[in-house]
Structure to design on (492 residues):
């Protein structure tokens, strides 16, 4: 091996060592995923096969519908997704996606405004590849409680936000994140919200809220509902910000410019302090709590860890968002 | 796809645990973007899982795995917008500081920069050769090309790096 080959090897190994960390592969996601690439079939042959199938399908469809031309067309929507009035039943979409019926809603004290962390959402992708998964991640990052997502091969042109009624505060709050989306209601009892999404949304507004008077009726938030994010309140760009939480895989919060905050992340358990590490000002900076003795886990809610930099490393301050 | 065949699922799960990091490294080096690399690995694993019970064993299996990952990476690159940014420099570029730190930094950076300027196919050949340590015959199998073509991709990339490093020393 000559020096040049050695340089190549070392350069590539160095680059691989410096790559951003990979979240653990979700086996279930892999085993249920439609493969985009297979070993023996070059993509161009798949494309040719798809083109042939498309032409054959169009020809057969034209022949069939030509024969049916005298019969008036009846608009049919997928029965599993059609809005219907069922005041004490799970929503049709809940049945289609298989997420459990959460039971009748409960009057919930949310103060004067409903925020994202109180809203339970299911996502049904009806458009681009993996749009439901992307949208779920995006809604979680904005604080929503996403309980299921499902990709369906039924393309649609517009996004629909569906809840108990089109005017329900939880529906309005979700609709805020999908400009141009239509809102409707099916009278569901649990006050969850379904998003039948055509294209991934772009709005980033974790502080969004809808004013409410009294106590809106909402499904109880079950399971893990602690959401944390990290904000860089120092004057230094922080790179590879990592914060560790007991029992959670999520530890990488990205690169944060001064004043920037990461997305919210669900964690199993969190305390006022967390071990945090980042690179900034030309060195590795750390905040390392000695232990959690005397500390109690944080209650469900949304929290921000505010980072600062001093001569000793990082400083950490917990802010309760809601 | 229902998870009914527990034997297949168990062996596939073991495979993912053992190999996903390495596959991700290859995908990262070829696509140069973490999201694309993750997509490529997921696509490749999904493709492997689909045919898991019928896959060959031994060297043929390794060739199939490499072929699948290469196809997934190139497919992801073809799908992304032409103007996609190469990568976030801040994520990447701090070469290890060694005893001859300056030279190591320069050469390592130069390899990374050069790889960014190669075509995806050339870059794939280089990664398989110098990161996966494959023979030219295996690279040809993984890329679906002739051995001479694989050899040509790698040698051209090395020639370019040689010129770069020589220019840098002058």
């Amino acid at each position: 091996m000559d020096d040049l080959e050695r340089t190549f090897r070392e350069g590539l190994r160095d680059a691989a060592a410096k790559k951003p960390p990979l979240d653990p592969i979700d086996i279930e996601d892999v085993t249920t995923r439609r493969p985009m690439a297979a070993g023996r079939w070059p993509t161009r042959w798949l494309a040719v096969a798809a083109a042939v199938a498309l032409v054959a399908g169009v020809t057969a469809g034209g022949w069939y519908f030509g024969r049916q031309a005298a019969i008036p067309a009846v608009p049919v929507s997928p029965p599993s997704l059609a809005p219907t009035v069922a005041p004490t039943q799970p929503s049709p979409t809940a049945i289609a996606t298989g997420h459990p019926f959460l039971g009748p809603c409960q009057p919930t004290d949310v103060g004067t405004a409903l925020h994202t962390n109180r809203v339970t959402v299911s996502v049904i992708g009806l458009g681009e590849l993996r749009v439901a998964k992307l949208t779920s991640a995006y809604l979680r990052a904005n604080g929503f409680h996403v309980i299921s997502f499902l990709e369906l091969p039924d393309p649609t042109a517009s996004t629909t936000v569906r809840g108990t009624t089109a005017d329900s505060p939880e529906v309005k709050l979700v609709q805020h994140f999908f400009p141009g989306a239509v809102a409707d209601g099916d009278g569901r009892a649990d006050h969850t919200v379904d998003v039948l999404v055509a294209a991934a949304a772009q709005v980033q507004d974790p502080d969004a809220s809808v004013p409410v008077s009294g106590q809106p009726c909402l499904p109880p938030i079950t399971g893990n509902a602690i959401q944390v994010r990290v904000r860089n309140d120092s004057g230094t760009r922080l790179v590879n910000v990592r914060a560790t939480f007991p029992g959670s895989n999520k530890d990488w919060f990205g690169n944060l410019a001064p004043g920037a905050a990461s997305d919210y992340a669900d964690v199993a358990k969190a305390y006022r302090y967390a071990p945090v590490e980042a690179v900034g000002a030309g060195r590795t900076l750390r905040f390392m709590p000695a232990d959690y003795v005397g500390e109690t886990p944080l209650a469900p809610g949304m929290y921000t860890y505010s980072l600062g930099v001093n001569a000793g490393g990082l400083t950490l301050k917990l802010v309760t968002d809601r | 796809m229902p998870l009914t065949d527990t034997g297949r699922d168990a062996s596939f799960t073991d495979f993912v645990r053992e190999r996903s990091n390495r596959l991700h490294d290859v995908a990262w080096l070829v696509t140069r973007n973490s999201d694309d690399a993750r997509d490529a690995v997921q696509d490749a694993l999904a493709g492997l899982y689909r045919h898991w019970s019928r896959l060959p064993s031994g060297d043929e299996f390794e060739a199939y795995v490499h072929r699948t990952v290469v196809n997934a990476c190139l497919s992801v690159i073809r799908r992304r917008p032409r103007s996609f940014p190469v990568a976030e420099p801040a994520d990447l570029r701090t070469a290890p500081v060694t005893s001859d730190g300056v030279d190591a930094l320069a050469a390592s950076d130069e390899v990374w920069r050069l790889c960014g300027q190669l075509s995806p196919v050339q870059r794939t050949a280089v990664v398989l050769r110098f990161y996966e340590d494959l023979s030219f015959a295996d690279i040809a199998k993984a890329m679906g090309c002739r051995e001479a073509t694989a050899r040509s991709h790698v040698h051209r990339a090395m020639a370019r790096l040689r010129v770069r490093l020589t220019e840098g020393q002058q």
In short: Chain B touches chain A through 64 residues (CB under 8 Å). Residues 67 and 142 of chain B are 4 Å apart (CA to CA).
